[in-house]
Amino acid sequence: MLAQCYYFGMGVEKDFKTAFNIFLELSESKSHSTEAKDWLAMHYFYGRGVKQDTKKAFEIYLEHSKSKSDQQNSAKINLAKFYLNGWVVDQNQKKAIELFSELSKSKSDNKILLMLNLSWLIVMNSEKELLKISIKPFNSI
């Protein structure tokens, strides 16, 4: 994707603003909108090529998490991180665990990432109830 070339500086000079504008245009197209929305949210979150706006990033992930696309799981992982860390929303570890648990039951290619996130949560949290919830979905992996 051309936008990624500008983002990473592959074959062209690295230019986050140009990458953002291409992702913005692609997000409105039917053929590339799902992947482009993930990239847009990341640009907003980190303020790359656009003014940093974590609330806008959250809104994109929230909308995208409800879609029926291949990138839906990626959006849910990022949403869970918002809840886990209290970015834009009140910190809610239980909501984060619910999202991670839901994803662990899907046909996601992101199960390793899910396990890492839940492992971190277990290490950082001593509440036994949260530990029970977070371990259960991974018994089948």
Automatic annotation (TrEMBL):
**Entries under InterPro entries matching the protein:** Sel1-like, Sel1_AlgK, TPR-like_helical_dom_sf
Output the SUPFAM superfamilies linked to this UniProt entry. Answer: HCP-like
Which biological process annotations from GO are given for this protein? ERAD pathway
Q: Which GO terms describe its cellular component?
A: endoplasmic reticulum membrane
Taxonomy, superkingdom: Eukaryota
Pfam families xrefs: Sel1
Family membership noted in the UniProt record: Belongs to the sel-1 family.
Q: What is the name listed in the Swiss-Prot or TrEMBL entry for this protein?
A: HCP-like protein
State the organism of origin.
Gigaspora margarita
> What is this organism's lineage?
Eukaryota, Fungi, Fungi incertae sedis, Mucoromycota, Glomeromycotina
